[in-house]
């Protein structure tokens, strides 16, 4: 990856923190991904960083919180989050997102749903305008292990192309989430913005589905780091 792209990631993350984190905030959700690294870094630079409690979405974000000297908390203690920052695998014009490329979509969605304000930070490769346009790996769907065959069949009937995510090369067999479940990546092709919510509802209604990687009507703002070093702010 070019230094310019990396600089744009850092700039968009710093901008998102500087423009949105307020002294009145107390609890911050910290997501995962290469751009969120710079969110944690920026918060760790603040003189009042000990004022905040940071809630991770998974192992990577927990490590980011610890490495930047931030206070670590959990949803059990802080079920209401003031503001959350996270990355995305793809973003459409309605700020709907596909997330879960790292198999953390359930924890990520729990934190996002608990947040009063949810903000996306990502590089411009993720800002395609339509889900499934650039992200070809499919929608990550977390399922209980003994339901994967049933859910795969129902996803095919819905028009998708489901594949159980492999844990190879580090693990023989399927990838396992932090919650001990399987992930099915299901490609539905390019999804119109107006149809994202209905598709998500149909998938979630399948018995055996734990959660989807479709984040619908959750983000209010997105900060996009462009390859030329600029930052684009999107809002709904």
UniProtKB/TrEMBL annotation:
GO terms for molecular function: ribose-5-phosphate isomerase activity. One of its GO terms (biological process) is pentose-phosphate shunt, non-oxidative branch. Its EC number is 5.3.1.6. The keyword RNA-binding does not apply. It is an enzyme of class 5 (isomerase). It comes from the Eukaryota. PANTHER family: RIBOSE-5-PHOSPHATE ISOMERASE (PTHR11934:SF0). This is Ribose-5-phosphate isomerase. It comes from Pichia kudriavzevii (Yeast).
